[in-house]
Specification:
Length: 80
Amino acid sequence: METLVNSIHKAVVQTDIRDELLKDANYFIYILLVIIGLQTVGLCFLGITVYKQYRSNHTRNRRQLQSHEAGRQNPFLPKQ
């Protein structure tokens, strides 16, 4: 009878340990998912910022080029 009680006790203790390990693993997975999500959001904001900077530089360069070409094509301006 005592062997049965001991084996049941060991099974219960092992189940408790297994449950604790699974709970810890779940927390670890949730933390990893949160970190991955935050990195994804950060990369999106970085990409948007870089794109806006590229677009503003591209627009400014195009305006400068257009004004330069317009000035060069103006027959009333003195030739350089």
